[in-house]
Amino acid sequence: MERTMMVRSALASALAMALTACGGGGGGGNVRIDPPPTTPTPPTTPPPTTPPPAKPQEPAFDAHLSVTNARAAQAAGLTGQGVRIGIVDSGVQRNAAALNGRVLANLNYIDPARNNLAVDDVVGHGTAVASLAAGAAVGSWPGGIAPGAQIVSARIIADKPPVDDGSGKGNSFSGPLGVAQVHQDLISYNVKVMNNSWGGLYWTDLPTTAQVAAEYRPFVISHGGLVVFAAGNDARAEPSSLAALPSQQGVAG
User: Fold this and answer.
1) Is the pTM of this model over 0.85?
2) What pLDDT score does 61 carry?
3) Are 102 and 134 within 8 A, CB to CB?
């Protein structure tokens, strides 16, 4: 009986020691439970960056040739040779590289007291238009639509633009436009195509429509010329008064 009690006592002591070795108390055993997981710190999201605005693609130097299919015409030998184009604009720089030797005359119809007539084209617009119409190929510039044509410049645009009357369309007027002499001079130079890449004038009465149309009639009807007017840069649904002149009410003949 005493032996049995001693065995049991020894067994209990062994179990207690075993439990202590397996992690009981604060001692370090070979088996440990993992600590409870900690909540990870969420990653910091950087503020969104606004990409820089995309730069509009510049038009190709030969856009005027592609949209008009001028290359096909030039390949067929239609270069404007023998044709004279009147550029009614801000003047044309005679020594421009693409126009050198091609400008037959620079006619001035602006006030010499308020404009610099020592310079062929202070604004530069007329020179650019003439280069598009009939400029020769120079460097990376592929040339104009009719590189064989000649230029007659009629300078009617002042060096400084007028102030808009608040309508957004330029300035209104009544009566004739005052370009009859310009047209007669172009006829005397045997100009067959008259380009007008300008605007800024409008009217609202039928008598003015008839008088303006009468100024263009000799060049078109009697001389057999072609008048080209700018449609405008604003992409409006309707053309300007001058661009719509042939179809306006009040135009006869």
Assistant:
1) no
2) 80
3) yes
